[in-house]
Amino acid sequence: MKTSVDQNRRALYVCYAAMMCLAIALNFLPVYLTTFSDTFGKQGGLTAEQLGRIPAIMFLSFIIAILVTGPLADRGDAKRIILFGLITTTAGLVLVGFAPSYAFLLFAVAVMGFGAGVLDMILSPIVVALQPERRSAAMNWLHAFFCVGAVGAVLIASIGLKWDVSWRMVALGITIAPIVTFLLFLGLRLPPLIQEDAQREAMPQLIKQPYFIACLIAIFLGGATETGLSQWLPTYAEQGLGYSKEVGGFALAGFSVGMALGRMAAALLHERIAPISLMLGCCAVTIGLFFIISFPPSPAVAIAASIAAGFSGSCLWPTMLAITADAYPRGGATMFGVLTAFGNAGCSLIPWLVGIIIEYSEIHIGLLAVALCPAGMIGLLLWMSRRSRRQAPALAH
After folding, report:
1. What is the C-alpha radius of gyration for the chain, rounded to an integer number of angstroms?
2. Cα→Cα distances 372→53, 231, 275, 283, 389, Å
3. What local confidence, expressed as pLDDT, does residue 194 receive?
4. Quick check: do 1-193 and 198-397 share a fold?
5. pTM, to two decimals
6. Between 20 and 30 A from 180 (CA), which of 90, 91, 263, 373?
7. CA dist 188 to 14, 15, 145, 352, Å?
């Protein structure tokens, strides 16, 4: 029995709320790293390596969840999977709020990261199933709400610091979001991730397709383009442009707002501009902005160009998800899980490589190197666009 249009619309909105929940869970912790040092460290506080271990463990758990639960979602009920993700995320936040020691905090963020990974894996295929005729728009709208949640998390944590609200109370307070979203999902009926009369395409078959491999590389480059700049933007604003830490924080918030607006704009333009054409244009603009960021006529122009790069590069990840879903409509949740894992690999690897480049040169050279990512994506997109529908791997036959 098919869900009604109204039910699909409600389900779509609740998926947006779930995306905000995972963004809040992932993004409020970095604001409190120095606070964790004071709370769990001894006289000298936690070392830089111990502080870095917190987001590293959360990210590792996040990736494990994506890879483990993808195949399970194809064989089980998507609703149960997303409810499990919300419960696990909530449990992780509660454990963070009551963490008595550094070791327990690491366990708590691992639980929270696992729950967020489950949500990140399952939300994209659910939204595609809800809007199969508008995949590009649906993906951009969904991932726009990740940016909204990220900005909200930073604002909530920053306000908590300013008003001297305990980080434990903040962690417990934001559990309201996943709890309410969990209750909203209970009353929903979700469509199957793959049509009941269709057979899911196995990952060993997909990985043999050159077109699919190109999609994996492209989403890797899309994630790299985003975080290659965002992870280093506060440092660049402070050390490269001479601004204060506060300005660097505002620049990062502006970057996230630019990404949210860019994804919303891409969703609105989905009927006017073909997805690959949109991505080609955005890649070209982003490359130009990276040159302005690296060699700016003034510090203010560099900050403005950074925010603009958030806008122009925002559609690369979600639109590539949609392009892959169009080419492989029977890929299932496993396919989305592998795509998301590749995207997150780009998010983690490229900022690290930028750091290595900066160590041996200067920060603006490291940021300029990130422009190679959208440049490489242009080559992939041109190759993909030259393939006709008969040549492209349409799995419907």
Report:
1. 21
2. 29, 17, 21, 10, 29
3. 67
4. yes
5. 0.87
6. 263
7. 9, 11, 20, 41
Average pLDDT over residues 291-307: 97
Q: What is the pLDDT of residues 208-229, one digit of tens each?
A: 999 999 999 999 999 999 989 9
pLDDT tens, residue by residue, 139-171: 999 999 999 999 998 888 888 888 989 999 999
- What is the homologous superfamily of the domain 1-193 according to CATH? MFS general substrate transporter like domains (1.20.1250.20)
Please state, rounded to an integer, the average pLDDT across all residues of the chain.
90
For residue 156, which of 171, 142, 145, 143 has the smallest C-alpha distance? 171
- Structure-derived torsion over alpha carbons of residues 157, 163, 165, 171, reported in degrees to the nearest 10: -20
- DSSP classification of residue 370: T
Provide the pLDDT for residue 17.
98
Residue 49 amino acid letter: E
Provide the terminal-to-terminal Cα distance of the chain, rounded to the nearest Å. 25
Closest CA to 235 of 226, 244, 223, 224: 244
Q: Which position has the higher pLDDT, 349 or 278? A: 278
Instruction: Give residue-wise pLDDT tens across range 55-105.
Output: 888 888 998 999 888 888 877 789 999 999 999 999 999 999 999 999 999
pLDDT interval class at 199 (50, 70, 90) = low
Q: What's the CATH architecture for 198-397? A: Up-down Bundle (1.20)
The domain spans of the chain are 1-193, 198-397
Q: What was the pLDDT predicted at 3?
A: 47
Q: Which two tokens stand for residue 339?
A: 């795509």
* Look-up of token digits 């604003």: 237
Query: How far is Cα 76 from Cα 190, in angstroms, rounded to an integer?
Result: 12
The residue among 18, 376, 69 whose CA lies nearest residue 219 is 376
Backbone angles phi, psi at 28, to 5 degrees: -85, -25
Q: Which of 31, 28, 30 is nearest to 52 (CA)?
A: 30
Which tokens belong to 58?
Answer: 């959360």
Tokens of 254: 């502006």
